[in-house]
Amino acid sequence: MSRLDHRPTDERVRAARAIAYPDQGDVIDALCEGIEALAGSRPLSAKTLAVLAERRAVKARYPKS
């Protein structure tokens, strides 16, 4: 009987990264808010900071090889 191979492969890592990333619309909104904040010299919103933190966590969990 053959055993299942659960080792991470490039395809598995790509799929896991795609699922783990925040919604693209949320990312675009956060980027726009960030640009507006920089243009207006005001602090980044909590939403923008949360999306950026989520992105950093995904990159740390699923680093590119």
UniProtKB/TrEMBL annotation:
Domain of life the protein comes from: Bacteria
Protein name per Swiss-Prot or TrEMBL: Uncharacterized protein
Organism: Nitrospirillum amazonense
